[in-house]
Design a protein that fits this description.
five-stranded parallel sheet, alpha/beta, Pectate Lyase C-like, binds 2-acetamido-2-deoxy-beta-D-glucopyranose
């Protein structure tokens, strides 16, 4: 009797897990690249999930993130995110044959939301573009978001701070609703250090 009850409870727990909404808080380690901590478990959070960059944390996105096909996924950018400041390191990644074409690359899916923060201090994705603009460096610049092949997507409240070049592309996507996004690309030296084609 007891055994039967246990088996039942276990089955029920499994069913619950399969249909539940999952939330994954992206882990952060000071001074380290936070990309691998996310990509290592992305396959488990590619359906019916929230992926949360938490407020109060500045995430180091030192290497590009490539998302698998996503279905019913919301990615919330409530913390800050930072690109690397090492320009040659970025250029080496962008120039390599394995680079997907964008720092945040999507490969397809349905009902995917990118949602930033409405708190003015948080949710900024800092590209450190000023350093590139200062030298008019246009060699192997990282493109931002390739929100590709998404059917039914939302891009809202996103905030990009001094992006190096290119912000959002939506190739192959349909039914995309983009609103209330902010791109701050103001150079400190607009005459000599301009945010070319950003
Ligand atoms: C995702 O949720 C929907 C209901 O909103 C459900 O029909 C579907 O089976 C779920 N998918 C998975 C893989 O859990
Ligand atoms: C992710 O799923 C794999 C199997 O698909 C499992 O072995 C692993 O424990 C899961 N990881 C997490 C963090 O849930
Ligand atoms: C679409 O995704 C949102 C989360 O962004 C979720 O609340 C909603 O249930 C999803 N829609 C369907 C039809 O599953
Ligand atoms: C988040 O990043 C933006 C842009 O770099 C910056 O202005 C803001 O101060 C940062 N927020 C915190 C809490 O450090």
């Amino acid at each position: 009797m007891l055994l039967n009850f246990r088996t039942c409870a276990l089955l029920f727990a499994n069913v619950n897990f399969a249909s539940a909404w999952n939330t994954f808080v992206v882990p952060h380690t000071a001074g380290q690249d936070d990309t691998s901590g996310l990509t290592a478990v992305l396959a488990n959070y590619s359906t019916n999930s929230t992926i949360l960059f938490k407020q109060g944390i500045t995430y180091n996105i030192f290497t590009p993130i490539k998302f698998p096909v996503l279905n019913n996924v919301e990615i919330r950018f409530e913390g800050n995110l930072t690109y690397p400041t090492d320009i040659p390191a970025i250029q080496a990644i962008v120039g390599s044959s394995s680079f997907s074409g964008a720092w945040f690359a999507f490969t397809g899916g349905n009902n995917v939301t990118l949602r930033g923060s409405t708190d003015p201090k948080w949710g900024w994705i800092d590209g450190h573009g000023q350093e590139w603009w200062n030298t008019r460096n246009q060699v192997n610049r990282p493109h931002g978001f390739a929100f590709s092949k998404i059917n039914g997507g939302v891009i809202r409240d996103m905030k990009l701070y001094k992006p190096v070049a290119w912000n959002f592309a939506t190739s192959g996507s349909s039914n995309i609703h983009a609103f209330n996004n902010r791109i701050y690309a103001l150079s400190v030296d607009p005459d000599n250090a301009f945010p070319f084609n950003t």
